[in-house]
Amino acid sequence: MARFPKNDIISLIGEAPRYELAASLGPDLRLAELLAPSGESSLGDMPLAYGTAAGDPRLRRAIAELHGVHADDVVITVGAMHAIFLVAFVLCDRGDEAVTTSLSFPPARTALDVVGADVRALPVSFEQGYQPDAAALCGLLSPKTKLVSLTSPQNPSGVAIDRKTIEAVLSTMESRCPEAYLLVDETYREAVYGGDPVAATMAAASPRIISVASLSKCHGAPGLRIGWAIARDPALREQLVLGKFNTVASCSPVDEALALAVFRQRDRIFAERRQHLSEGLARVEDWVRAHHDVVDWVRPTAGALCCVRLKPSVFDDPAVGVFYDALAREGVRVAKGTWFGGEARVFRLGFGLLPMSTLDRALEGLSAAVFRARTGAEVLSPA
């Protein structure tokens, strides 16, 4: 009966605390933002019928144009996780090998486990700056490998995997497991800071690559439940469409129409959100600098998230527990490293959801929790 493992990360879609620093996205778009500027009044006349299995052709064209592929290569899904699950379900029979990294977003790993794949995960650590070693990652590949699943930028760190590492994996796959596919979850790719350059998509780099993303993180529209998979292999793409039909039939045409409105206004949306993320990142950077004696961090490449560590030289395990208890009393929530398969002293800090004035108060609560944990650690330390 317990096919899906329980993870406390599910609390993110439960009751929110006073200060939410565990979220990995920016402010939510409001429906009025999409409708008023674009004059999308035709939504009122839209029949509430089924959509198509592959997805609205206009939406698929908009996504394809931004990724340098053909509209027929795009399959619209119910969020990125639906795409990841379908890819795993289609490609991996029980006992087939899937290669990934850990830490990872729990549902992305669960998708591999529940289809019965033999998962070979390469640990990535805080000390490594969350960069997987290319040789070690390639060393996990075997003739039994059917899928390699990577996220770049990663969740929970926001660190992009070096493109040379991805290219090395792809090259090794050609000789060691030529029938395998490389899934690259690019959900955070365009959530850069201010005027920082956006990394090129991997979608058109090879027919063996599947690019996955959604509107949830960069665009601020997780409530639309729209994601996509870009698969340039026609046989695989057909299986993804069939898998979608056999699980959800189609996406909501209302969601797809609103998603199209998001794409039509993406320049305005991205300009506002990238500035917001830049301001949030700067505040976190200042906070880490002010507390450099007790915490360190890995600066993210993109996304509204980063990883912060309570220094082992300052906080023992009981002090880490005091820290989280104190956070709860302050009404602040961060994403514990244990949610992602890591250690408790590392936590994901989300800096994009809150208004800046509220983020400042949340960081004050974080400071108070660090102080209480440090004071407790000093009291308990031997003389």
Shape: globular
Biggest beta-sheet profile: 7 strands, mixed
- Overall pLDDT, averaged? 94
Number of domains: 2
* N-to-C CA distance: 52 Å
CATH class of the largest domain: Alpha Beta
Determine the strand fraction and express it as a percent band. Answer: 15-25%
- Our count of helices gives 11
Radius of gyration: 21 Å
In N-to-C order, the SSE pattern is: EHHEHEHEHEHEEEHHHEEHEEEH
Proportion of helical residues: 25-40%
CATH superfamily of the largest domain: Type I PLP-dependent aspartate aminotransferase-like (Major domain)
Layout: helices, strands, pairs:
Layout: E1 19-20, H1 31-38, H2 57-67, E2 74-77, H3 79-91, E3 97-102, H4 106-114, E4 118-123, H5 134-139, E5 145-151, H6 163-176, E6 181-185, E7 209-214, E8 227-231, H7 234-247, H8 253-264, H9 266-290, E9 295-298, E10 305-310, H10 317-330, E11 332-333, E12 335-336, E13 346-350, H11 356-380
Parallel strand pairs: 1-11, 3-4, 3-5, 5-6, 6-7
Antiparallel strand pairs: 2-8, 7-8, 9-10, 10-13, 12-13
Helix pairs in contact: 2-8, 3-4, 3-7, 9-11, 10-11
Question: Which features does this protein show?
Answer:
383 residues; alpha/beta; Aspartate Aminotransferase, domain 1; Aspartate Aminotransferase, domain 2; 2 domains; 4-stranded antiparallel beta sheet
Write structural notes for this entry.
With 383 residues, the protein is α/β, with parallel strands linked by helices. The protein folds into 2 domains: 8-27 and 268-380, Alpha-Beta Complex (Aspartate Aminotransferase, domain 1); 40-265, Type I PLP-dependent aspartate aminotransferase-like (Major domain) (Aspartate Aminotransferase, domain 2). Helices cover 39% and strands 16% of the residues. The chain has 11 helices and 13 strands. Strand 5, helix 6 (163-176) and strand 6 (181-185) form a beta-alpha-beta unit. The longest helix has 25 residues, at 266-290.
